[in-house]
């Protein structure tokens, strides 16, 4: 199985809430990505079959949404918001700091596969700027020093 | 989990359960939970709509359309099922309030959906939450499950003989999906490309059925309107601008945060009293009144304006989404315009040429300009390009990109002039003009 039986059964159940088979496609893509790490060809083939779409139709949807990716990335995706509220409170410096510390650029991945980095648009944390999301977790009111502590914490998690 | 703030001027209606653990259904029930929907079940659909009309609630998503009127556009009879769709895509830069509602009071959103459903004769509601807000999706899933377990959702709700279902749904990263017709496309499992209107969603919406689309905050206001009465809600704000609003204060203020204040609250007090003024002894230069899609205000304009829909409409401008972004006197307006355009260029769905090409062209021009490669004629050109996007696109994203750009050129032209002839950015001590050649023709 491309995705776990549990996830697949959850999809089958959820799909019943909608009048058309494809309706739940976007969440299915995201939840599959969370499990597999990215939208692989196998995920596309599986979801195409499940929703009775062609693989091309599924690919068309994948390419629209910025959170979806078709390549594997690091274990922790560091997403730095540089949009207006964050920019006004030092996001550009924070992003540069992340680039330097991790030694990678936009959409890069560290050689050990622990971190990826991404410059993102507003993540809804404007009043707690500058903000970063690592995978789904929010980190707010950051400074370069606080960012170091955040990264260290994630690094420690991989060693355990 | 985002920090909560408070200020004595706040009037807590929508935020009154914040920080009280109301995401748990038992706590919600102790705080008047699910009483509003029971009240609504005893009313006729028209009575509910009239109560919302009386409240003068206007859409909190940005456009400020009267909610009661929107509901009244739904046809009484329909061969296809009707739907309520809650817009929790919250992605307008500067806006971070729906997040707090979904985190602290998810049952109020569910209850609001049910009341909207009773008002228009829908039996199903969808709550769409942006993909990045996964922890809120989890909170909402749990809230919905709890409501079903109590029998508040499903068959024969509160013994009324009526059925009602509420479902959750999530996006996967796209600002444009916040636009109502793109939102429906996304919920139907497609790319978020808008639909041409008419027909409007109230008549032909989700899967062809009549659909009411409302912002999270609008929907979360509805149970309070039922409990306190439309007139009392209306009286909180100026005429035709009922109730309160969650203002998301960000940028250069001492006390950023989300504050609930009555509509019509003076912008000056919002910045200097609620927000505690500008840090580092600096002065105010500009205010984004309601998310990046709105006309920016100069310091003088901000001093004299009240935060309600009509005070802005009178100037031909917009109150927007509640995202108030404060800019101090050391902010470069050219750089700001560039960052805003970079966003719209990234988010344009690419369907119409003025938006797709216009945002790209403007981003390139502003990049060159900020790097010191600008020409005098570029200044008018930037405005001309933006003006030519306005009103010439299938959805309002083109307008959203044009509006801040035009206002920055109009109101801070001198800052563009200060960047001319290879001069480095006056606000950036490290600015270098190495990236781009200076054009001479
Ligand atoms: C590009 C674009 C993005 C939008 N994003 C949002 C959004 O994230 N949340 C929202 O509630 N409304 C958003 N809107 C407004 C919606 O189209 C719609 O007007 C609103 O959800 C209606 O709800 P309301 O009447 O309760 O405000 C957006 C509009 C445009 C044009
Ligand atoms: S205005 Fe922009 S986002 Fe809207 S439909 Fe046209 S190209 Fe797409
Ligand atoms: S601008 Fe960065 S979170 Fe909104």
Structural class of chain B: alpha/beta
Order of helices and strands of chain A: HHHHEHHEEEH
Structure class of chain A: alpha+beta
Low-confidence stretches of chain A: none
Small-molecule binders here are: flavin mononucleotide, iron/sulfur cluster, FE2/S2 (inorganic) cluster
Q: How much of the polypeptide of chain B forms β-strand, as a percent range?
A: 5-15%
Helix amount of chain B:
40-55%
Biggest β-sheet description of chain B: 5 strands, mixed
Largest interface, chains and sizes: A-B, 39 and 58 residues
DSSP summary, beta strand count of chain B: 11
- Percent helix of chain A, as a range, is 40-55%
In whole angstroms, how far apart are the ends of chain A? 28 Å
Distance between the termini of chain B: 53 Å
Integer average pLDDT of chain A: 97
Which strand order spans the largest sheet of chain B, edge to edge or round the barrel? Answer: 6-5-11-8-9
- Give the tally of structural domains of chain A: 2
Shape annotation of chain B: globular
Report the total helices of chain B.
18
Please, could you describe this protein's structure?
- The complex is a heterodimer of chains A (160) and B (441).
- The two termini of chain A are 28 Å apart.
- By secondary structure, chain A is α+β, with helices and mostly antiparallel strands.
- Chain A contains seven helices and four strands, in the order ααααβααβββα.
- Chain A folds into two domains: 5-64, Orthogonal Bundle (Arc Repressor Mutant, subunit A), CATH 1.10.10; 76-158, Glutaredoxin (3-Layer(aba) Sandwich), CATH 3.40.30.
- The radius of gyration of chain A is 18 Å and the shape is elongated.
- In chain A, a hairpin with a 2-residue loop joins strand 3 and strand 4 (137-139).
- Chain A has a four-stranded mixed beta sheet with strand order 2-1-3-4, with helices on one face.
- By secondary structure, chain B is an alpha/beta fold.
- In chain B, the strands form three sheets. Chain B has a five-stranded mixed beta sheet.
- In chain B, strand 5 (244-251) and strand 6 (257-262) form a beta hairpin.
- The longest helix of chain B has 21 residues, at 353-373.
- The relative contact order of chain B is 0.12.
- The mean pLDDT of chain B is 96.
- Classes of the chains: A alpha+beta (160), B alpha/beta (441).
- The interface between A and B is large, with 39 and 58 residues.
- FE2/S2 (inorganic) cluster (FES) binds next to helix 5 of chain A.
